[in-house]
Amino acid sequence: MINCQESREFLSLKLDGELNKLELKELTEHLSSCRSCQEYEQRLDNLHQDILSLREVALEESIVDKLFEKNQFMVEEKKDPSAIQKMTGRRWKSWYSLATAAVFIILIIPIVSMLNSNENPSEANYKMAQMDTAYEKSNLKSVDGDSLGIASTAEGASGEYTDTGNNFNTLTVDPTAQESQAIYTAVEENNQLVIYQADKEIYRTVKWDKDVKVEWEKPIKNEVIYFLSKNGEQVGKYKINLNKLKEEKID
Amino acid sequence: MNQDELIQSAKAGNRDSLVSLLKSIEASIYKTAFYFMGNEHDAKDVTQEALIRIYTKLDTYQEKAKFNTWTQRITTNICMDKFRKNKKNEVSIEGAEISLAGQLNVEKKIEDKLMLEELVHQMKNLPENIKAVMILRYFQEFSYQEIAEALNLPINTVKSYLFRGRDYLQREYQQRGGVHQ
């Protein structure tokens, strides 16, 4: 013989079809002589039906579509709450300091803008060499202290690079943010790859030749890798580190 | 492609498969999130975060656990974190809950709709583990075993939480009239 507490627990199990034959028999026996549990059963059944009638809830528009909008990708960052995060002008005055670097990124569709080049191959090669040189120069410049200004200090011999001046907007981040997921956008503008974090520009690459084509590939961790190619041939491969907002040439 | 093939393809880097896979689960993630958080706004935030986390952790998903169990685990974890955080910041979500009736999509009279809103409100206030069990049972139709796996609980605890959740609701909800007299 079961008591009221057990019988009520059985009633809950019964709703899910989880009572064996013996338990069901014991329950039925108890209910036949217990008014209080009969009423409980009624209330439980009513509740059960009401919850079941709640089932339909819908998303008006797909969140997946929004996440995968062209050029967008996401980075999950864990930020140290004590980090100083104010950056102004052309040089970063301080860095984000990250507690962990567990960061992943989703890929975007690459932007292509290709113009036909009338130059002969040797000229093209010379220009590519200049780009590389200028690039390395700018990297060396950024090694000192905590200045970062890569794009803005690149002054290549070729003169194709313009001083990009005020590349970096003032950027402040809530220092108490423990963890955030930022939505980034990568866009090609004026022969540069520009990365926005939630509509604020956070990084701009060196400017490249007009007839150079850019593609970026599925990022690994917190790095965006992009390729420059001319006339179908790859002329440079670069890696942008989103945490340090610094890039380097690879390959 | 069935779901397993889609998962393999997405893991291998196929973007279309990834998008299809995520789209196939976003509604059920949203459903769990909605009943846990009690309002549309927070539910959308949770859904977005869950989708991102599922994507980024897809490599760690092994076929031993069922995919739905795995995704619901991620979703409920995010729900619990966010719910606790909201409580801490005393974020007022009362206003956001006002037009629940519209979300519910149920063909009932207005008074009934209000009562059902009350039910959702009561559910939202259940202790988080009990709430999670109730949601997975009612809105994801998980078996006891699946709930136990998703939430990392012993089966007896699952049974107990279901009982306690129902017991609490039949008392609180009915006190305010309920739909049935």
SSE inventory with pairings:
The complex is a heterodimer of chains A (251) and B (181).
Chain A: H1 4-15, H2 21-32, H3 35-52, H4 63-67, E1 72-79, E2 86-87, E3 98-100, H5 121-141, H6 150-153, E4 171-172, E5 179-189, E6 192-197, E7 200-204, E8 213-220, E9 223-230, E10 233-241, E11 246-250
Antiparallel strand pairs in A: 1-3, 1-5, 2-4, 5-6, 6-7, 8-9, 9-10, 10-11
Helix pairs in contact in A: 1-2, 1-3
Chain B: H1 3-11, H2 15-37, H3 40-56, H4 67-88, H5 94-97, H6 100-104, H7 110-124, H8 128-138, H9 144-151, H10 155-175
Describe this structure in words.
- The complex is a heterodimer of chains A (251) and B (181).
- Chain A has six helices and eleven strands.
- In chain A, the strands form three sheets. A five-stranded antiparallel sheet of chain A has the order 3-1-5-6-7, with no helix packed on it.
- Mean pLDDT of chain A is 65; it is low at 76-180.
- The longest helix of chain A has 21 residues, at 121-141.
- In chain A, 29% of the residues lie in helices and 27% in strands.
- By secondary structure, chain A is of the alpha+beta class.
- Chain B is mostly helical.
- Chain B is 75% helix and 0% strand.
- Chain B is built from ten helices and no strands.
- In chain B, helix 1 packs across helix 2 (15-37) and helix 2 packs across helix 4 (67-88).
- At the A-B interface, helix 1, helix 3 and helix 4 of A face helix 2, helix 3, helix 7, helix 8 and helix 10 of B.
Keywords for this entry:
heterodimer, A: 251 residues, alpha+beta, five-stranded antiparallel beta sheet, four-stranded antiparallel beta sheet, 6 helices, B: 181 residues, mainly alpha
Give the strand tally of chain B. 0
| Oligomeric assembly | heterodimer
Number of strands of chain A: 11
Count of helical stretches of chain B: 10
Average pLDDT level of chain A: 65
> Reading side by side through the largest sheet of chain A, how are the strands ordered?
3-1-5-6-7
List unreliable stretches of 5+ residues of chain A.
Answer: 76-180
Helix fraction of chain B, binned, reads: over 70%
Q: Report the end-to-end length of chain B measured between terminal Cα atoms.
A: 49 Å
Terminal Cα separation of chain A, in Å? Answer: 79 Å
Radius of gyration of chain A: 31 Å
Mean pLDDT of chain B: 86
Q: Name the structural class of chain A.
A: alpha+beta
Task: Give the H and E element order of chain A.
Answer: HHHHEEEHHEEEEEEEE
Structural shape of chain A: rod-shaped
- What Rg of chain B do the Cα atoms give? 17 Å
